[in-house]
Write a structure and sequence with these properties.
The protein has helices spanning 41-50, 66-81, 93-99, 113-120, 134-143, 168-176, 193-198, 207-210, 216-227; strands at 28-32, 56-59, 86-90, 103-106, 125-129, 147-151, 181-184, 202-205. The protein is α/β, with parallel strands linked by helices. The chain has one domain: TIM Barrel, CATH 3.20.20.70. The protein has an eight-stranded parallel barrel, surrounded by six helices. Helix 6 links the parallel strand 6 and strand 7. The protein starts with 27 loop residues before the first strand and ends with a helix. Residues 1-21 have low confidence and may be disordered.
Length: 229
């Protein structure tokens, strides 16, 4: 114990800063494909990606042959690569591997992060659906996921869900983890602001873009205006 009157060693001014949570980048847009792709979707995607900043595009085709997923991947991946947009495949790590995608998004029944990592390699982007569960998010992070996804925050016809997390789950997550979080489910330019304010690192959208009355490019531009505020 120091003697009475002994000078105290001054604290390094940067001491507190080293333990402060790093400032997170601005929220970004994450596009998910419509469930059925029209013949002109290559052009539609290109126009959408040219309309505003997009971080990632996920190819999500359900109940179609693997060959059809790979055919579309071959057409769409170059569109994304030319614009520095990450290209991910939904559910199937094996198909992501086959087409050389940048990563895969896994639902709770789509296999483990460990298996996907072993197949795709250390640099692959692996995301995990965590619904409204803090426990699932913690498990995904511990397993080595690159991001966690919460939702659906609003009613959605793209992927109906009984899960309705409160926006506070995004705030909680960004307080305890530097791992990015994605908000998903029925999000539009009109409803995204509370999720961005709560801490979402990415806003994942599908129908709000591809089903927009003025076209996908108009919707991406509207999201860009919101996210740049």
């Amino acid at each position: 114990m120091s003697g009475e009157g002994e000078d105290l060693i001054p604290l390094d001014p940067s001491f507190g800063d080293r333990f402060a949570r790093e400032k997170r980048p601005p929220c970004q847009l994450y596009l998910i494909s419509p469930p059925v792709l029209a013949d002109d979707f290559v052009e539609t995607l290109a126009a959408a990606l040219d309309a505003g900043p997009v971080a990632a595009f996920q190819l999500r085709l359900k109940a179609v042959p693997d060959a059809e997923v790979l055919r579309w991947a071959a057409l769409l991946q170059p569109v994304c690569a030319a614009r520095d947009v990450a290209f991910l495949v939904n559910d199937r790590a094996d198909l992501a591997k086959a087409c050389g995608a940048d990563g895969v998004h896994l639902g709770q029944g789509d296999g483990s992060v460990a298996d996907a990592r072993a197949l795709l390699g250390a640099t692959a982007q692996i995301g995990v659906t965590c619904h409204a569960s803090r426990h699932l998010a913690m498990e995904a992070a511990e397993a080595g996921a690159d991001y966690v996804a919460f939702g659906a925050f609003y009613d959605t016809t793209t992927k109906p869900s009984e899960h309705r997390p409160d926006a506070s789950i995004l705030t909680w997550w960004t307080t305890i983890s530097q791992l990015p979080c994605v908000a998903i489910g029925g999000i539009t330019p009109a409803s995204a602001a509370p999720l961005v304010a709560a801490g979402a690192d990415f806003i994942a959208v599908s129908n709000a873009v591809w089903g927009h009355a003025d076209g996908a490019a108009a919707s991406v531009a509207a999201f860009a205006t919101l996210l740049e505020m």
